Amino acid sequence: xxxxxxTVIVTGASSGIGLAIAxxxxxxxxxxxANGRNAERLQQAAVExxxxxxxxxxxxxxxxxxxxxxxxxxxIERFGRxxxxxNNAGIFxxxxxxxxxxxxxxxxxxxxxxxxxxxxxxAARHMVERKAGHIINITAAIASQPIQGVPAVLPVLIxxxxxxxxxxxxxxxxxxxxxxAAVAPGIVDTPMYTADMHGFLNTLQPAGRIATVQEIADxxxxxxxxxxxTGVVLPVDGGMSSGKW
Length: 245
Ligand SMILES: NC(=O)c1ccc[n+]([C@@H]2O[C@H](COP(=O)([O-])OP(=O)(O)OC[C@H]3O[C@@H](n4cnc5c(N)ncnc54)[C@H](OP(=O)(O)O)[C@@H]3O)[C@@H](O)[C@H]2O)c1
Description:
Elements: E1 7-10, H1 16-27, E2 31-36, H2 39-49, E3 55-59, H3 65-79, E4 84-87, H4 102-130, E5 133-138, H5 153-173, E6 178-185, H6 198-202, H7 213-224, E7 233-236
Parallel strand pairs: 1-2, 1-4, 2-3, 4-5, 5-6, 6-7
Bound molecules: NADP nicotinamide-adenine-dinucleotide phosphate.
Residues 11-18, 35-38, 41, 61-63, 88-92, 111, 115, 138, 140, 185, 187-188, 190-192 line the site of NADP nicotinamide-adenine-dinucleotide phosphate.
């Protein structure tokens, strides 16, 4: 580690990409506040992550405004400040547009949209006061490169909106030395997909394979250390969003 320990909040850290991001920061010597909805699952992840002196778990639904506040308050109480917020918690639901139910729309808005807004508001208030911080959103390559064989209008709508919100919030917070960026993964090897789906999923990227969680975590680590990079949406997608193939 070539920097003093940072404090990093990672939402959705009990599984997949979020778990890998939490592990990557802990490996660098940083402090992590890990969030997930299911407290038991989050506790299992904490055991897997180790480093109890540098790790705090805060269970809660990111759609609840109180969770964002609790995450930031807990980070300040235990570690003194928040340097980085990673808005990673997310769900994906691919189906024909006309088949989405109101309950499915609500679920996507709750986790994927409100789960960006509320933790970001709580973190931004603190970061603006400190005149330092990074907010990093995990979006999706499919938001800028929809795929005909994977109908997913509602996830595209929300993740695409967050890509644009990333740029708008970056402009708003730039005078306060707070950087806002996004990582847009292609398909990633996480529990979101079962192994029998990998053959098809490999075909969705020009690279011919899906990403590892470490490849997404590496992009987040880069952005968390980038003082003059803001408002970018960084694709980590094996060429998926580069054009038609
Ligand atoms: N996997 C991919 O191919 C892929 C591709 C592009 C983008 N992404 C994005 O990457 C992010 C992580 O995906 P993943 O594949 O790692 O997912 P995952 O393995 O299913 O993990 C999702 C994590 O989010 C948490 N979570 C879900 N809803 C939550 C809520 N309302 N409040 C708090 N925590 C919540 C889950 O915890 P609980 O179980 O406790 O709810 C879990 O820790 C998502 O934003 C997803 O859209 C994934």
